[in-house]
Structures are given as C-alpha cells and as structure tokens.
Amino acid sequence: MIVNLARGQRVFTSNAFLVDGDRTVLVDVGNDFDVVSEVRDHVDDLDAVVLTHTHPDHVGNLGAVTDAFDVDVWGYDPDFAGVDHEIDDEETVTLGDHDYVALHTPGHKNDHLCFYSEAAGVLFAGDLVFANGGFGRTDLAEGDRQLLINSIEHLVAVIDDDLEELYTGHGPAVVTNPSQDVELALQAARMG
C-alpha cells in the first residue's frame, strides 16, 4: 500500500508517501502539516523514514516524525542534521514489501535519490521528474541543469517499460505509462 499523506494539504509541502508492508516506511515527511496524525490514521508505527533529498519542503516535519515514532532516518547525506544512516548509490533499501535500488540523481540537489523496484514496478522520483514531462528546478543552491539531465538519462537507462507507478515529490502519481513521462522529462530538460 502506498498513500500520499500530503494529498489535499494547502501548504508549502512535498508529497509524503507512506509505504506499508513488511517494513513500514515514510518516503519524505513533507512540511507544515500534521503528518504524524496522517501516519496514525493508517498505521500504528513506522520502521524508518527515507529521504529523497533534504530541501525544506521534504524534511520540515522530520523532527515531529522522529519524536512521535522514535524512528531512524535514512538519506544520502549523513552530514545533514537528522539523517542517521547513509544510503549509497545503488544500495538496496526495503520499502513496504519490496526491495528498491537507490539511485543517486543530483542536479536538483546534490543529495537527491530516486528509489526503483523492478519487481514492484514502482519508482519514487523525488523532485527529479514529474508527471507530464516536468522536471526538477535547477535555480536553487546545488542546482545544475546538465547534472540533472545526466541524472534523468541514468534513470531512463535503469527503468524499463514495465514501470507501472511513478511517485513524484510534487503533484499526482503517474499510473498510466509512467516511462513515457520520464522520457518526456528528459526531452524537456534537454530543450531548456
């Protein structure tokens, strides 16, 4: 089960995905809303928090979540306050009932990760790519357009046409031909 706990929130926040299963994980915690209550509406406890990256809209609720659930936080940058465990490029992490490969995909932010499970047909793309060919902004600190393009190219090389579900850091999930949206994002990023 994958639920976007930030859906319908009218605040400056990223999506926050609860992935329930053998290892109940929150992928990003969002910002400026009561994510703890949202988690408790679905499950009693969390096993981990996993971060796609550390922009404020993705980590603003981190303290509230770690206080409420006494849970460890996993991310690419162990020097970021609040990250307890480092996730390396191509390391395997369990989200829910499936193993995901962590893909280091900088360009939007240096510590950006995507998580892909071929077996589940699911990709958590953070702010690298969005529905309808959107892609992460590169005008913030650590943003780099060419690096972002390289990261999307890497993502395209890793995912396959069996991708069924694309969960992004903002906006709706893509459940109809999500590989096409990733390809469109690559085309759009190259054109800009």
Describe this protein's structure.
- With 192 residues, the protein is of the alpha/beta class.
- It is built from 5 helices and 11 strands, in the order E-E-E-H-E-H-H-E-E-E-E-E-E-H-E-H.
- It has helices at 35-40, 56-59, 62-69, 145-158, 178-191; strands at residues 2-4, 17-19, 25-27, 48-50, 73-75, 85-86, 92-95, 98-104, 113-117, 122-126, 165-168.
- Helix 4 (145-158) links the parallel strand 10 (122-126) and strand 11 (165-168).
- The protein is globular and about 45 Å long.
- The termini are far apart.
- 46% of the residues are buried.
Number of distinct beta strands: 11
Q: Identify low-pLDDT runs.
A: none
**What is the end-to-end distance?**
36 Å
Give the name of the CATH architecture.
Answer: 4-Layer Sandwich
CATH topology: Metallo-beta-lactamase, Chain A
Cα shape:
globular
Beta-strand portion reads: 15-25%
Strand order of the largest sheet: 1-2-3-4-5-6
The major β-sheet equals: 6 strands, mixed
Structural class: alpha/beta
| The first-level CATH class name | Alpha Beta
Question: What is the N-to-C succession of helices and strands?
Answer: EEEHEHHEEEEEEHEH
Percentage of residues assigned to helices:
10-25%
Protein name: MBL fold metallo-hydrolase
Organism: Halorientalis brevis
Pfam families: Lactamase_B
GO molecular function, one term: metal ion binding
